[in-house]
Design brief:
The complex is a heterodimer of chains A (about 140) and B (about 800). Chain A is of the alpha+beta class and about 140 residues long. Helices cover about 40% and strands about 25% of the residues of chain A. Chain A contains three helices and five strands. In chain A, a hairpin with a 3-residue loop joins strand 3 and strand 4. In chain A, helix 2 packs antiparallel against helix 3. The longest helix of chain A has 26 residues. The radius of gyration of chain A is 14 Å and the shape is globular. Chain B is an all-alpha fold. Chain B contains 37 helices and six strands. The longest helix of chain B has about 50 residues. Chain B is rod-shaped and about 135 Å long. The chains are: A alpha+beta (about 140), B mainly alpha (about 800). Chains A and B meet through helix 1, strand 3 and helix 2 of A and helix 17, helix 18, helix 22 and helix 37 of B. Chain B: This is RALBP1 associated Eps domain containing 1. Chain B: InterPro entries: EF-hand-dom_pair (IPR011992), EF_Hand_1_Ca_BS (IPR018247), EF_hand_dom (IPR002048), EH_dom (IPR000261). Chain B: One of its GO terms (cellular component) is cytosol.
Chain lengths: ~140, ~800
């Protein structure tokens, strides 16, 4: 269960960011922002060696004492960042991957919507639903 | 008493009322003022009202809190339905119609204004989120309508929870409609109004009841904020509403403007006069209003017509951009349109089929009429195939997948990579029935599959043969043809000999060429792979293949086509395959080549005889027809496998020839020879000849192998006779032997040596068996060629292996690169 999920556009501005409301959202925003550096590093490193073929799932970007940050980047340089609580050690890599896959699918659906302009923030309810399903279920129902 | 359970409808209704009454935005309703007016409007005796207020606790508090208000409302409803006022009855009364309040016109206006204000304070709306269906709207509408409605109002300005249905404003309390609120009231007025105004839409008027029902449904599922109240009043009267139906089709402007005011007020949604639309729909749905989202036939027809204006093909797709333009005309906010799209594009392919389009259109209409968008696509709007593949639809619908085939295919392909595919689908499958689409696709895929399979026969050999591209010099195509034919003829090889002449001729033509090729060591074709032997093999193989193909009228074999392909197959495939190939080829080619082999075989003979004299003598005797081609050994080894006996004979023969080979070989030779002799003697028809030749060749090859083995001093290893492994080692030995030999006479490729050896043996072969000798020689050459080819293939494969290993290493390194953080 994620604590924060963010979608960042190619130009590195956020398209969608959602955090568990109980915590200081600013902290997550900052975390996501700093994780972008790691993402860039990863995609540039891999790009050199393999050229086009690049794994979309970037894996653990970096951990802190409180949480871990996972990254995923699409072929169009749209980045998904998931922040999970470090205490939640039960999350396996596969689960994170599946979360990213779901995110990617939902994102694709949003993009398919002709009424959505790429570059605009994502306002799709379906996407919100998916993200909510992945967020940590806190007591306070938002 | 405080524990009041309300149905959703009631909840919404009450919250609307509460908000209406809560003029001060304090979440409390003063005992006086609106609340009282409201209660009075309930047309209950004042004592009852007092009682109610007491019961709900308002008198205690001095004001109506929300809960008190709700309780009061419920009590009013109870009272109106004639039930005794009891606290217990609050929760026990089921299906209680909503309290009805009759409102006077002025009051309505006042409320209307109030509503406007209320609309601003959307926050007041209960979190129940049900869209507040404001009575006021009805009233407001009425007001807006002005006189006509006003006049009609009195008739039924009852804010009926549901309205109603029909003109007479009957007890809208029909349980079904009861949940509905205000709109119902308006409908009646609208109805009249509509009748007055609406000309175009047929059923518009008075779809009150259904509308009400629909309304309810709309409300319930909807979770989004519906600022309702404010909207209501702003909604234009029915006519615009009616037109809104069609509005954004082409004549949008007229209706839209009407709605604009409301939209302006409305922050999020534009609700046209809900009642208008609702009435229409209600009327239509009068029969089935239990499903508010159901599209009536008329509506559907209308939708279909609209669809046609965009996409003439009813089974086609409307691309996203066109749909966007179309629906944008409805002047709904982009956000809402986006949501509608999300709901209606069931297969998420970025395009709308007819069903999806109808659903979207229906949602837009509903939205324009004030219905809140559902969170989930209602079942009745799920894309269903209009036409039917009943079975498909049924299954699909039951599965709630909507579209039949396509969703199955489409939904799975929701992966990121799929969107493009999905979008491609609309173009591909211009079928409303995704089933058909699906079938088309499947058929196309099937055709594709078939196509592949067609190619398969041709490819396998090539694929199997050698991953390495054949360096064919001369006619690649020719070779391919050969390969193909050979592939095809592989199985025919056994029969090819039957064809005899032509193949033989072709073989002969090939043989000389190959021989020359060999002799000159002109592996210029690229065959001269590192292993001359293989190059030897190649020509032989080619010949074989050619012979195989010849039956199929490949008579253009004259030029020495580089044999790579056939050889490649040999090398790549398992020894068994090779055996089969070789065997087939050998069988096919040898007999043919044997017959043709004569002339070409002659020249090299003298040379081989020199060197191979020592063992040729033996071999010649033993083999007769068995052309002891050293080259054949390798190539024939695979052939040998089926011909183990020959091999054994050969080895025996070798033993005789002072070879160190196990007796098995000689035995093989011996056996083969007699057989050969017999067969040669038989040689009645070409068939037999061919067969014998083939066998002779094989045996010859076996003998050659054995001879070579013996010559090289290496035990054939085929001790017990038919053993697969032995041939190989023997082959190699023979090969090496060939290598040794070439030094003597033909310093060219080993194959030449082999051939030389073979030829050397040949002279010793009784001339009476000249024909067989030729065949043997031909087979020997073929085998040599095959050997060379195989050797080349082997080297190529080795190279590939190295490359792959390197690649693997690089991948591992990359993996390591990607893993740095995984340790954390």
């Amino acid at each position: 269960m994620a604590v924060c999920i963010a979608v960042i556009a190619k130009e590195n501005y956020p398209l969608y960011i959602r955090s568990v409301p109980t915590q200081n959202e600013l902290k997550f925003h900052y975390t996501v922002h700093t994780s972008l550096d790691v993402v860039e590093e990863k995609i540039s490193a891999v790009g050199k060696s393999l050229g086009d073929q690049r794994e979309l799932y970037l894996g653990l970007l970096y951990p802190t004492e409180d949480y871990k940050v996972y990254g995923y980047v699409t072929n169009s340089k749209v980045k998904f960042v998931i922040v999970v609580d470090s205490s939640n050690t039960s999350l396996r890599d596969n689960e994170i991957r599946s979360m990213f896959r779901k995110l990617h699918n939902s994102f694709t659906d949003v993009m398919c919507n002709p009424f959505h302009s790429p570059g605009n923030t994502i306002q799709s309810k379906a996407f919100d639903g998916i993200v909510s399903g992945m967020m940590v279920q806190t007591a306070s129902t938002v | 008493m405080e524990s009041l359970t309300l149905t959703d409808v009631e909840q919404k209704y009450y919250s609307d009322l509460f908000i209406y009454c809560d003029t001060d935005n304090t979440k409390k309703v003063a005992s006086n003022g609106r609340a009282l007016d409201l209660f009075r409007a309930a047309q209950l005796p004042s004592e009852v009202v007092l009682q109610i207020t007491e019961l709900c606790g308002a008198t205690r508090l001095g004001h109506f809190g929300r809960s008190q208000f709700y309780i009061a409302l419920k009590l009013i409803a109870i009272a109106q339905s004639g039930l005794p006022l009891r606290v217990e009855s609050l929760n026990s009364v089921k299906d209680l119609p909503l309290p009805r309040f009759v409102v006077g016109k002025n009051e309505a206006e006042a409320r209307h204004a109030a509503l406007y204000q209320d609309s601003d304070s959307q926050g007041l709306y209960p979190a129940s989120a049900a869209a507040v269906m404001p009575r006021p709207p009805g009233r407001g509408l009425q007001n807006k309508k002005g006189t006509p409605s006003a006049t009609s109002l009195p008739a039924h300005e009852v804010i009926q929870p549901l309205a109603p249905s029909i003109e007479p404003q009957p007890e809208p309390t029909s349980p079904v409609v009861s949940p509905q609120q205000s709109p119902p009231t308006s409908p009646p007025s609208w109805r009249k109004h509509k009748r007055q105004t609406s000309g175009g839409n047929v059923d518009r008027p008075a779809v009150v009841a259904p509308t009400g029902a629909v309304w309810t449904h709309f409300r319930e599922p909807q979770a989004g904020p519906v600022p309702a109240d404010g909207m209501w009043p702003s909604h234009s009267p029915p006519p615009p509403g009616q037109e809104s139906w069609v509005s954004f089709t082409a004549d949008t402007p007229p209706s839209i403007p009407g709605m604009h005011p409301s939209s302006v007020q409305e922050s999020t949604t534009i609700r046209t006069v809900a009642s208008a639309a609702m009435t229409n729909e209600i009327q239509r749905q009068s029969s089935g209003y239990d499903d508010p989202w159901k599209i009536t036939d008329e509506q559907r027809q209308y939708y279909i017509n609209q669809f046609k204006t965009i996409q003439p093909d009813l089974t086609g797709f409307i691309p996203g951009s066109a749909a966007k333009e179309f629906f944008t005309k409805s002047k709904l906010p982009i956000l809402e349109l986006s949501h509608i799209w999300e709901l209606s594009d069931f297969d998420k392919d970025g395009a709308l089929t007819l069903d999806e389009f109808c659903a979207a259109f229906h949602l837009v209409v509903a939205r324009k009429n004030g219905y809140d968008l559902p969170e989930k696509l209602p079942e009745s709007l799920m894309p269903k195939l209009i036409d039917l593949d009943d079975s498909a639809e049924g299954s699909e619908q039951t599965a709630d997948v909507g579209y039949s085939g396509s969703p199955v295919e489409v939904t799975p392909s929701k992966s990121p990579s799929m969107p493009s595919l999905n979008q491609a689908w609309p173009e591909m499958n211009q079928s409303n029935e995704q089933w058909e689409t699906f079938s088309e696709r499947s058929s196309s895929s099937q055709t594709l599959t078939q196509f592949d399979s067609n190619i398969a026969p041709a490819d396998p050999d090539t694929a199997i043969v050698h991953p390495v591209p054949i360096r064919m010099t001369p006619s690649k195509i020719h070779m391919q043809e050969m390969e193909l034919k050979r592939t095809g003829s592989d199985h025919n090889h056994p029969t090819s000999p039957l064809l005899a002449e032509p193949p033989e001729l072709s073989d002969e033509a090939n043989l000389p060429a190959s021989l020359k090729f060999v002799a000159a060591n002109t592996v210029g074709d690229g065959y001269s792979s590192s292993d001359s032997f293989t190059s030897d093999q190649e020509p032989t193989t080619r010949q074989r293949s050619q012979s195989g193909t010849s039956p199929e009228a490949l008579k253009v074999v004259a030029p020495p086509p580089p044999p790579p392909r056939p050889n490649a197959s040999h090398s790549r495939s398992s020894s068994l395959d090779m055996n089969r190939t070789f065997a087939a080829a050998a069988v096919a080619g040898q007999p043919q080549s044997s017959t043709i082999a004569y002339p070409p075989a002659v020249p090299p003979r003298p040379l081989p005889t020199q060197t191979s004299a020592p063992h040729t003598g033996h071999r010649a005797e033993a083999e007769g027809a068995s052309g002891g081609g050293a080259a054949l050994s390798t190539t024939t080894s695979p052939q040998q496998i089926p011909q183990q006996p020959n091999f054994a004979d050969f080895s025996q023969f070798q033993a005789f020839a002072a070879s160190e080979q196990p007796s098995s070989l000689p035995e093989v030779d011996i056996h083969s020879e007699p057989g050969q002799v017999e067969k040669t003697s038989e040689g009645a028809g070409p068939l037999r000849t061919v067969k014998s030749d083939g066998q002779a060749d094989e045996r010859a090859s076996a003998t050659v192998n054995s001879a070579k083995g013996s010559g090289s001093g290496s035990g054939s290893g085929s001790g017990s006779g038919p053993l697969a492994p032995p041939p190989k080692p023997v082959r190699r030995r023979l090969k090496s032997e060939d290598e040794l030999r070439p030094e003597d006479e033909q310093h060219g490729p080993q194959k030449s040596n082999v051939i030389a050896a073979v030829l050397a043996t040949q002279p010793s072969i009784p001339r009476s068996v000249g024909k067989d000798k030729k065949a043997i020689q031909a087979s020997i050459r073929r085998n040599k060629e095959t050997n060379t080819v195989l050797a080349r293939l082997n080297s190529e494969l080795q190279q590939q292996l190295k490359d792959l290993l390197e690649e693997r290493i690089s991948l591992e390194v990359q993996l390591e690169q990607l893993r740095p953080f995984s340790h954390l």
